[in-house]
Specification:
Layout (H helix, E strand, L loop, with lengths): L2 H4 L3 E6 L2 E6 L2 H10 L22 H4 L7 H11 L5 H29 L6 H18 L12 H6 L1
Antiparallel strand pairs: 1-2
Helix pairs in contact: 5-6
Main location: endoplasmic reticulum
Membrane topology: Peripheral membrane protein
Keywords: Endoplasmic reticulum, Heme, Iron, Membrane, Metal-binding, Microsome, Monooxygenase, Oxidoreductase
Length: 156
C-alpha cells in the first residue's frame, strides 16, 4: 500500500484477490453505518463466519457483523431501536456499575484470601449475566456475591 493512498479518506486495497474499500474518514464511516446502512448490507464479514455457515459456531454466524442480505437487514431493523444514542448512554452507566461491582468483589476477595487464580470464562459469564439482567431486564443481580442466583443458573 502506498502511503499516499493510506492518507486518503477512502482507498482501495486487496485482501489476497478480493478488492476492498477502506474508509478512514470518521464522518463518512458514520454516514455509511447509520444513515446509508441499507446500501451496505453485504460488507466483508469476519473470517469464516458468513463463508462457511455450516462449519462456524452458530453464535458467530448469527451476529450482525456476519449476516448478509435480507437476514442482515431484518436483524438490524430489529436491533436498531434498542441501541439508540440515549439508550446506549443509559446502558453504559449500568454496565459500568456491573463492572465496578465485579472489581470490588475481587478486591475484597484478594484482601481476605490473598492472590487469586481466576477462570476468565467464568468471570466473563458472570459479568455478561449481570449486564444482561440489568440492562435488558432491569434486574439487579450480583453473580459474583450470589454465585447461584436464579438468573445466572437459568441462563447457563
Amino acid at each position: 500500500i502506498l502511503i499516499t493512498n493510506v492518507l486518503r479518506r477512502v482507498f482501495g486495497i486487496f485482501n489476497l484477490t478480493e478488492p476492498l474499500y477502506m474508509v478512514r474518514d470518521p464522518e463518512m464511516a458514520k454516514k455509511i453505518a447509520v444513515k446509508d446502512f441499507d446500501h451496505f448490507v453485504d460488507h466483508t464479514g469476519m473470517t469464516g463466519a458468513s463463508e462457511a455457515v455450516e462449519n462456524s459456531h452458530m453464535l458467530v454466524t448469527n451476529t450482525l457483523v456476519a449476516l448478509r442480505g435480507n437476514k442482515w437487514r431484518d436483524m438490524r431493523a430489529t436491533l436498531s431501536p434498542a441501541f439508540t444514542g440515549s439508550k446506549m448512554r443509559q446502558m453504559f452507566t449500568l454496565i459500568a456499575e456491573c463492572g465496578q461491582s465485579m472489581v470490588e468483589f475481587y478486591q475484597d476477595k484478594t484482601r481476605s484470601e490473598g492472590p487469586q487464580v481466576v477462570e476468565m470464562k467464568e468471570l466473563f459469564s458472570r459479568f455478561a449475566n449481570d449486564v444482561i439482567a440489568t440492562a435488558a431486564f432491569g434486574l439487579k443481580v450480583d453473580s459474583f456475591k450470589e454465585q447461584n442466583n436464579e438468573f445466572y443458573t437459568l441462563g447457563k
